[in-house]
Amino acid sequence: VEHYWKAYSVELPAPSLMPQLSPDTLEIWVQDGSKIRNLLGLALGRLEGGSARHVVFSGSGWATGKAVSCTEIVKQRVPGLCQFTKLCLLHTEDSWIPTSPDMGLDHLTIYPNVPAVRVLLSWDPLDPNDVAIILQEHPLMLCPPRTKK
């Protein structure tokens, strides 16, 4: 690996894990460099202001813990929210390029699986039948497997 540098990393597309949500649901994608205070300001403003009934925090890789932290802080500050959590593995594509082209090394492409979490917070009580439908669609892997090219 010392003779390669990482050119790019792409998260391969995955279908939504929570299809029963309305289109006006606020979905917050948490990233490594996201500031928790900025994420909380957006989520709390919408939930407390009444303009959002549902908020979904999504994070993958190193941001998984930060997404969970945001969820817990929102639940402490806004009592009465219902929670539904999904864990999955997201498929990514990483491309590695040789540091010096004269060494005769090939470009590498690897497909690692990255842990991810999606947490739904809702003012509305969650219907257990909706949750059962989602789990029947993806019984073992909550993110469908990657198709081979």
Automatic annotation (TrEMBL):
GO terms for biological process: tRNA 5'-leader removal. Gene3D superfamilies: Alba-like domain. GO terms for cellular component: nucleus; ribonuclease MRP complex. Coiled coil: none annotated. It comes from the Eukaryota. The keyword Signal does not apply. Residues 29-88 form the DNA/RNA-binding protein Alba-like domain. It is found in: Nucleus. Its main location: nucleus. The keyword Ligase does not apply. Keywords: Nucleus. One of its GO terms (molecular function) is RNA binding. SUPFAM superfamilies: AlbA-like. It holds the Pfam family Alba. InterPro entries: Alba-like_dom_sf, Alba-like_NAB, DNA/RNA-bd_Alba-like. Belongs to the histone-like Alba family. This is DNA/RNA-binding protein Alba-like domain-containing protein. It comes from Spermophilus dauricus (Daurian ground squirrel).
